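Summary for the steering committee. One of the milestones for this cycle was to obtain a three-dimensional model of the protein with iron/sulfur cluster bound, which we needed before selecting residues for the alanine scan. The sequence and ligand used are listed below.
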Amino acid sequence: MAKPIIDEDCCKGCGRCVAACPKGCLTLTDHFNKAGLKPVAYKGEGCTGCATCFYNCPEPYALKVER
Ligand code: SF4
Ligand code: SF4
């Protein structure tokens, strides 16, 4: 099953992936990472593996998609 894998400490919490996901299955969290930013999280269902989130993320190591 496809799913996004997020490295919370690399995520800048910019929200680009949240806005880009056609299935609406990403969300920003309320907790802070090591950089003091609120990272994104997978809601746990709905991912199709399209990788739109990956291609919209400006941080090279923040997000990848497992297919
Ligand atoms: S791979 Fe596609 S469906 Fe899955 S979280 Fe990323 S943008 Fe959303
Ligand atoms: S995973 Fe990338 S696009 Fe999504 S909020 Fe984090 S830094 Fe921004």
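Key point for the committee: The two ends are 6 Å apart (CA to CA).
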